[in-house]
Amino acid sequence: MLKIEGIMKRFGGLIAVDQVSLQVNQGEIFGLIGPNGAGKTTFFNILTGIYKPDAGTIMFEGEPIHGLKPYRIAKSGISRTFQNIRLLKEESVLDNVKLGMFGKTSSGLWAAILGLRTAKEEEAFVHAESQRLLELVGLADFEQLEAGSLSYGNQRRVEIARALVVRPKMLLLDEPTAGMNAEEVQEMTALIRKIRQNGTTVILIEHNVTMVTGLCDRIAVLDHGVKIADDIPEVVISNQEVIEAYIGKVDVEGVTHSAAN
Ligand SMILES: Nc1ncnc2c1ncn2[C@@H]1O[C@H](COP(=O)(O)OP(=O)(O)OP(=O)(O)O)[C@@H](O)[C@H]1O
Ligand SMILES: [Mg+2]
Q1: If you measure from the C-alpha of residue 33 to the centroid of ligand 1, how many angstroms do you get, rounded to a whole number?
Q2: How confident is the model at residue 259 (pLDDT cuts 50, 70, 90)?
Q3: CA 222 to ligand 2 centroid distance, Å
Q4: Contact 207, 256 (CB under 8 A)
Q5: Alpha helices of the chain — where are they, by DSSP H?
Q6: Can you give the pLDDT at residue 246?
Q7: Which is nearest to 37 in space by CA: 175, 224, 228?
Q8: pLDDT value at residue 260
């Protein structure tokens, strides 16, 4: 589904992503791990068109998407959440989810799929769809609250609902369990499984090694921008280079995590 070859991103003298190649198959939950500053978020930023890669190619469902503008890549079916939560804190939870469709209604997306003819029909549909997704992420009772009043963990769920409103083929999650307690991590794990069951392929950046190994079909490890491993979880976590670069430095809760950037 996704085939990346030799992508590279420089910031001045720093190579944040260095000749990374990887493939993600349709229906997979694919984990991306590595120490702080390894280039994981930069990788997502390249994939979603926020940064143009300095080298390399990205094929999504057989079409090149490297270098395309973010809205074009989103339109091809890739949606994401952000490491630093991006919600309109004073708007309602429901309105934040609806915003996932901002700029996409009237562009014919739903109109084409569902034969919605008027703006009113479209609004009603986005409303219902947003409520359905809030239900999916477990926030049905919160829809009228100000987004900023929710716990950190719940704000991340709102972001996921917002990312799903466009019915993406692939969802990129940047540290979805940041700031969550053990119980919330369990719930997030179940939610990601459900999202995959509903037909969306997932790439997950995560510091919680226990969660990633239990959840992901395959895991790639970045270290200083370089991919040092890419395999099934059992193989990756017993890889000596990975243990030295990363796993030796985190505990099962992912203590090296920093949610600030
Ligand atoms: N816009 C930018 N300009 C300059 N340097 C950047 C920029 N974005 C990222 N970097 C640098 O690139 C490197 C990779 O950063 P990135 O945020 O991708 O790491 P990460 O693996 O997501 O880390 P974390 O686990 O802390 O979120 C870091 O050294 C970072 O300082
Ligand atoms: Mg990051």
Answers
A1: 14
A2: very low
A3: 11
A4: yes
A5: 40-47, 70-75, 93-98, 109-114, 119-136, 152-164, 182-197, 209-215, 233-237, 240-245
A6: 83
A7: 224
A8: 36
Residue ranges making up the domain that contains 13 = 1-21+44-68
Q: Is residue 48 part of a domain?
A: yes
Q: Which residues are CB-neighbours of 100 under 8 A, at least 6 positions away?
A: 79, 130, 161, 162, 163, 164, 165, 166
Nearest listed ligand to the Cα of residue 32: 1
33 domain-assigned: no
Domain for residue 3, yes or no? yes
**Rounded average pLDDT over 105-121:** 61
Q: Is 209 in the pocket of ligand 1 (CB under 6 A)?
A: no
Give backbone dihedrals phi and psi of 109, rounded to 5 degrees, phi first: -60, -60
DSSP 8-state symbol, 148? G
Number of domains present in the structure of the chain: 1
42 has pLDDT over 80? yes
The CA 146 to ligand 2 mean position distance, Å, reads 26
Q: What is the DSSP letter of 2?
A: E
pLDDT digits (tens, 9 = 90+) for 130-188: 999 999 999 999 999 999 999 989 999 999 999 999 899 999 999 999 888 899 999 99
Per-residue burial over 182-199, b if 16 or more Cβ lie within 10 Å, else e, is eebbebbbebbeebbeee
